[in-house]
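[step 3/7] inverse_fold.run input=structure_tokens len=67
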């Protein structure tokens, strides 16, 4: 389960897609850039179960950004 999820726009013009994300998963902090097509570019360690984490992040971004 993802905890302490946060995101912020990569650009001053908030209309441009692209977000910096950070969260904790299994007691480890992860950071990355969430691209407009749903791709995540990890700027920290890559989670061992990356596909599961990507699905959870995508759901959170749909709820917070695209809602």
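[step 3/7] decode complete -> sequence:
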């Amino acid at each position: 389960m993802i905890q302490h999820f946060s995101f912020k726009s990569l650009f001053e013009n908030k209309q441009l897609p692209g977000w910096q994300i950070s969260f904790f998963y299994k007691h480890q902090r992860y950071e990355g850039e969430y691209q407009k097509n749903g791709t995540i570019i990890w700027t920290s360690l890559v989670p061992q179960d990356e596909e599961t984490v990507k699905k959870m992040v995508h759901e959170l971004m749909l709820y917070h950004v695209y809602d």
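[step 4/7] annotate
Residues 2-64 form one domain.
The chain has a mean pLDDT of 90.
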